[in-house]
Amino acid sequence: MLKVVSIKDDLVSRLLKREHRGEDLEAGVREIIEQVKEYGDQGFWSATKRFDHADMSAAQMQVTEDEIKEAYAATAPDLLESLRLARDNISEFHARQHFQTWFQPGEDGELLGQIYRPLERVGIYVPGGTAAYPSSVLMNALPAKVAGVKEIIMVTPPRTDGTVLPLVLVAAAEAGVTKIFKAGGVQAVAGLAYGTESISKVDKIVGPGNIYVTIAKRLVFGLVDIDMLAGPSEIVIVADEEADHVLVAADLLSQAEHDPMAAAILVTPDEKLAQSVRDEVEKQLAVLPRKEIAAAAIKNYGAAVVTGSMQEAVDLANQLAPEHLELYVKDPFSWLGKIRNAGAVFLGAYASEPVGDYFAGPNHVLPTGGTARFFSPLSVEDFMKRTSVIYTTKEALQKWGPHIVRLAEDEGLDAHARAIARRLERL
């Protein structure tokens, strides 16, 4: 049952300290990474057969063009239409994220600038297991495509018969994915990071996964770049007395059904609303297909926190720094400016969290576990790199040189200072 608590309850403290680092699992993750690093395709396939329990040979791990054609044939036309509309919305949103090369000349002819270039090759991880996520394919691949990445390699866990959900393959084709491998977990991350005979080493790995995937991404960071260390999904709903308790309960459960460790939290100054939402969550849970998962999440990290005021509710939301934050209040725009920490903010009664998950356009790969204090949603910028450009004329060096020499000598780096001093002598 959803717990109704005060802001001073121990549960609130536990929610604020929520983290899932999994140090106790790290040794096992390292072992799988080393197996793929040493044995390449064979290690990759062996781990996939062991953990994904898929009935397929090593030669069947890469998705073929025929499999993609079959996936299109198996996809209902109306479902394909919805997928394509979502694709267009996501593409258009990310196309507005401009990162342009620039140069700025100085008064003595010097030139400073910054060059933006897309990464050459990226890997996207698309979760499978208890559910398959075509929407995650779009959210991970489309920003890379907009950025101009040449090669997008996707990994996703297969079903036990060695196949991938047709709509996942269709989404990959629609989003511009160039290669797809039927593998998940640590071995998929290791294959992307180190490369195998079949998988080219990538520059960056993006996309959320379970705790094993998260640990693997942390361990290969530095060899490749990663987007963020994602944890279980979470939603915080800040609501006032005018909120519909039925809709609030539905939105809490929309996140609770993801994972037994997902967090679903209502924060409100209205105790009557909190009690109504608690009762409604129980009612809706009874008929939810993923009832066991959602019920565990509500038990582990579900709460209706009653605050003394709306300002106190917003302050707690900022402390929680949630992945998804709904402002379900009568004038959400008046409170938007007070939100400092959130992956995505949903305003008003009609901006339910699934609107962002599937269709609106902003990315649904979001920071979790309070990391919205310093991480941002996945964007086009995540698939680009910056190079600084410096051109110096003799006139500029004559002005700058003495200062550079002075600073280098103060740091004890005499060779730095002499590289400039000798140029000044020749001038």
UniProtKB/TrEMBL annotation:
A GO CC term assigned to this protein in UniProt: cytosol
GO biological process terms on file: L-histidine biosynthetic process
Reactions accelerated catalytically: L-histidinol + 2 NAD(+) + H2O = L-histidine + 2 NADH + 3 H(+)
Cofactor note: Binds 1 zinc ion per subunit.
Pathway recorded for this protein: Amino-acid biosynthesis; L-histidine biosynthesis; L-histidine from 5-phospho-alpha-D-ribose 1-diphosphate: step 9/9
Record EC number: 1.1.1.23
Coiled-coil spans in chain: none
Listed cofactors: Zn(2+)
Keyword Signal: no
Top-level lineage group: Bacteria
Keyword Oxidoreductase found: yes
Residues the entry annotates as binding NAD(+): 125, 187, 210
Family, similarity comment: Belongs to the histidinol dehydrogenase family.
UniProt xrefs under PANTHER family: HISTIDINE BIOSYNTHESIS TRIFUNCTIONAL PROTEIN, HISTIDINOL DEHYDROGENASE HDH
Function statement: Catalyzes the sequential NAD-dependent oxidations of L-histidinol to L-histidinaldehyde and then to L-histidine.
UniProt-recorded name of the protein: Histidinol dehydrogenase
Species of origin: Syntrophaceticus schinkii
Protein encoded by which gene: hisD
